[in-house]
Amino acid sequence: MSTGGSAPRLEVPRLEVRGVSKRFPGVLANDRVDFAVAPGEIHALLGENGAGKSTLVKIIYGVLGPDEGEIFWNGEAVSVADPHAARALGIGMVFQHFSLFEAMTVLENVALGMDRAEDMTALAQRVREISEAYGLPLDPERDVYTLSVGERQRIEIVRCLLQNPKLLIMDEPTSVLTPQEVERLFETLRQLAAEGVSILYISHKLQEIKALCDRATILRGGKVVAACDPKAETAKSMAQMMIGAELKTVTRRSGGALGEARLAVEGLTLASEAVHGTDLKNVSFAVKAGEVFGIAGVAGNGQNELLMALSGERLADHETVVRIDGTAVGRSDAGRRRRLGLCAVPEERNGHAAVPGMSLVENAVLSGHHRMALLSHLFIRAGAAARFAAEIVRAFDVRTPGTGVAAGSLSGGNLQKFVVGREILQKPKVLVVSQPTWGVDAGAAATIHQALADLATEGVAVVVVSQDLDELLAITDRLAVINVGVLSSAMVTAEASVEEIGLLMGGVHGLDGSVPGEEASHVA
Amino acid sequence: MSPRLAPLKIEARREIPRGLLYATPLLAVALTVVAGFFIFLAMGYDPFLSLYHFFVSPLLSFYGWSELMVKAAPLILIGVGLAVGFRANVWNIGAEGQLTVGAITGGVVALAVWGEEPVWILPVMCLAGIGGGMAYAAIPAFLKTRFGVNEILTSLMLTYVATLFLSTLVYGPLKDPMGFNFPQSRMFGDAALLPLLLEGTRLHLGTGIAVAIAVAGWVMMTFTIVGFQVRVLGQAPQAARFAGFSSTRIVWFCLLLSGGLAGLAGTFEVAGPIGQLIPSISPGYGFTAIIVAFLGRLHPLGIILSGLLMALSYIGGETAQVEVGLPQAVTGVFQGLLLFFLLASDFLVRYRLRFRPTVAAAASSQPAE
């Protein structure tokens, strides 16, 4: 209800949701949810994974139908049959994962997203007008694969704005942006709000919500548990409302003596396998025992290539390019590197870190069989595998009906806890982990961060690749920035400035849409 | 401007009932029978009599059952091997060729000692047959792992090379010198023939071995790291690489296994029911085994059942030919119908078709612009 906000709002809400429930087999995803968004309001939807945010947004956008409850649009009850109907009402949505065709131009992608055929010349003109009016620099003629992630997001936003939305839904929009790009996006959103567009902003980054949003509705277990004014709350108090418990803070030993270099990479140059991938260029760094080393960067700047080169999924040109505890392994496969103590967690959970169609037990065997004695000759030791899977589920609080369920049936955050836990429990000597808390809730993120810190305390060399700069600043000892496959020199985290890191992250992907490949002329 | 929406949309189903995945083979068989009924009717045959002779009368005699198992043996052997590969997304379509080469290599061993009756001859023939099938499957394996050549094309095309090579042999160097110039080899000696399991039938040891291999295949796929690697590669190739499984090795393994089993099936055919090399030793077992593998849900134990069912299509086709005068092509028609219905019902279990209203919804709202 619209009574909870600090600012009294007299108008009819743009969108009001009353008593919406949605049941999936075995779970009540939304339980009589009530909330309202006023015209021109930036409203945060906050909650842990599995709290029902996505379900609620899908119902509003017509992807799912509610089992119970009503949706009011400008005071009138409406039924949103599908996304076309939602767009016809004036609801636009920018998804977390973009649906763009890389080989096509910006304009062609925009045209494909329109509900009706448009004249291309007129459309190009409108794209230019909108991108200028809202500070979203975008050249309609550019091919999408040449664009940075931030620029791609602008396509999605422009696509929505072309429909003159009255309500814009943004699902985790900043996870792929540099700090400067985030600030720019916020300006655009504030401008839209000032013009009367309501914005429903879904995020787990509490600082951003404090900076941007007028009100917040907090979901837990499918129910609305609180509504608040984010500016009047602290990030910690909102996190506690979200998880319904005290938030643990990560304890780190302070500057203990570091040991020998456990992981050393020297002159790693590797062409990407992907058509529009990023080649690694002369990457060098070393991580000592007991150290947490961060690699920051905007998505798609060679992080995946680097992770695969470290895990052994891609082999380097020479054995000596990668060393684990002094042993050269540049030409050794993932199995030998794991037996030597290097465990890895890739960014993509489904299909890379885990097989979605296989059970948690089988997924425990997937990477665990090298170090956990899960094999007896050629046979898989079913009992040992089941115990290992159960141990991961217990230690990392993976919410699952059992270890026999398919990995793909777990929510993203739960599966993330499982795959990170699987590697940590193998007692690695070197752990390389990409996006360790991507999509997991604040409570679980704290658990994972604590586990990484504990590993470092035990003398493990930990490499964290993340696009979440706040995360890296919080948990790493040193960090470097990767941009178009080049790794910057490492800096001590405690002495690094966010502005400097942001500029390194921006690199040649300039904020004003400078052409990648024209080298870093823009950065200064 | 009109909305550019397709009226029909294919959507993935959110939840797939597990039981339904195992029910689709039965549904496909039922639909095949129904479709067969109408085909016989349209062709002017008595549909009830035709179906009776196709599906029922072969099962009414003891001999019919023994023949069923004779024909099921190669289907099961090959089907198990192919299913392992299919699980890993390795598509060996050339089992017919590997069967033929296995028949040649096994047969050549038998003919090489013709006139003698060494006791070791059968095991050596089997090894030669396995080796021949493996060697022939090694060609697509090498081309795929080394040059990325699609194994579907290479293995399929090599089938025709193999059958023509067999003809060349039996019309030439291996022709029976006492055979009145018929294109066939000498009959194998008794020691080179598979022992019969039941007197008075053609049921030979190969059927028992085929069932044993199916069970072994089930154990391998379910309980060993080898089967695990195969399944991971098929479901998530990136995860296989992440786990340190070499896709090259798995591709080699799958092709050599399926080729070896097809080669063994070829040797069993010439050392069993046929007893010599002739220009055509298989009525398409290598291709039918593809249907057997899918009908058996790529599960080795399911393949035993589907192998028996597809064997029935051969015997039923022959019976219907003799009793009702149906054309020989009816066997192929039934096999094709079965595969079609199986693929269609599998698809519809996983996806559904949704018709969309031709006019965009949301009549209740004002236009956006």
What does this structure look like?
The complex is a heterodimer of chains A (524) and B (369). In chain A, helix 3 packs across helix 5 (149-161), helix 11 crosses helix 12 and helix 13 (412-424) packs parallel to helix 14 (442-457). With 524 residues, chain A is α/β, with parallel strands linked by helices. In chain A, strands 13, 16, 19, 20, 21, 22 and 23 form a seven-stranded mixed sheet that branches. Chain A has a six-stranded mixed sheet with strand order 6-7-8-3-9-10, with helices on both faces. A four-stranded antiparallel sheet of chain A has the order 2-1-4-5, covered by helices on one side. Chain A starts with 14 loop residues before the first strand and ends in an 18-residue tail after the last helix. Chain A is built from 16 helices and 23 strands. Chain A is globular. Chain B has 369 residues and is mostly helical. Helices cover 67% and strands 3% of the residues of chain B. Chain B is built from 13 helices and two strands, in the order E-H-H-H-H-H-H-H-H-H-H-H-H-H-E. Chain B has helices at residues 18-43, 47-56, 62-87, 95-112, 121-147, 151-171, 205-223, 225-235, 237-242, 247-274, 285-295, 300-324, 330-350; strands at residues 8-12, 351-355. Mean pLDDT of chain B is 89; it is low at 358-369. The A-B interface holds A 25, 73, 78-82, 84-85, 87-90, 115-117, 163-164, 311-313, 333-338, 344, 346, 348, 351-358, 362, 365-367, 369-370, 375, 378-380, 382 and B 1-4, 15, 223-226, 228, 231-232, 235-236, 238-239, 241-246, 360-362, 364-365, 367-369.
